[in-house]
Amino acid sequence: MEWYLLALSSALLSAFAAIMQKKVLGKISALNFTVIVSIFIALFSTILIGKVDLSAAASYSVLVLFGKSIINATAFLCIMIALKNLEISRTLPILAASPMTVALLAFLFLGESLSLTEVLGMMLIVAGTYILELKKSENISAPFRVFIDSKYHRIILIALGLMTISSVIDKLLLTSFKLPPVTFLVLQNYFFLIIFLLYRILTGLKNNNEKLFNGVSKNILLIIIFIAIATIGYRWTQIEATKLGPVGLVIAVKRLSVLFAVVIGAKLFKEENYLKKVIATIFIVGGALLIYE
What we know:
The protein is an all-alpha fold.
């Protein structure tokens, strides 16, 4: 299969997973969802166990992967908390701004230069975020204050920061440490399960009455299984696409998942100001694509 078809499949599966996550999070807590879905993801990952090459994974690289998985798992939990409490069109587009934070960190701490297209991309991301958060009858400074006043927007920023750190370590593991992609994927999925179970146990000490499967009907469980399959699917197809095509272009196509999720999800959940949010998302995703160009 051509790399662009694999990358597009990854984007569509990722969008499907995000929309279904929003649906499920209306019924159960964010932490319980992350634990349950990670159980199924780890279970389905056994299909790939034959492709895992542990001999190529040095002990220190596995240790770094575990540390990175803690960062990534925490970011995912933050995203689920935000997605549960905010509209899908106000959560996912902001997370698509991660290329801007990566480029800024590289500029500030690694001394890398910013190209004209990267600066233009950042301007589009800022403009898109501003449009996304601007509401009628509010003054022009309101969109900037939302990240201070709103707890869930602050959680999105935390997730964005953690994702940025995680992305840098991902690159280190796959290029410098030469950890095979499939080994990386499978081990990370198992690490996620361990980490989320530990989070659940620690939280359970404070909430003794809350059961893991509270509010999980058969229909919800079935949707979670589909989410787990879609999650493995979009991660796997992205890895395969990266093997066959230019990495930058693969990531660019994968970024379209945010646009797909907003266009479909915002309509499905009957969110207000639909057109404005789609336009804002196009700005943000377009900016991210320019930075990756």
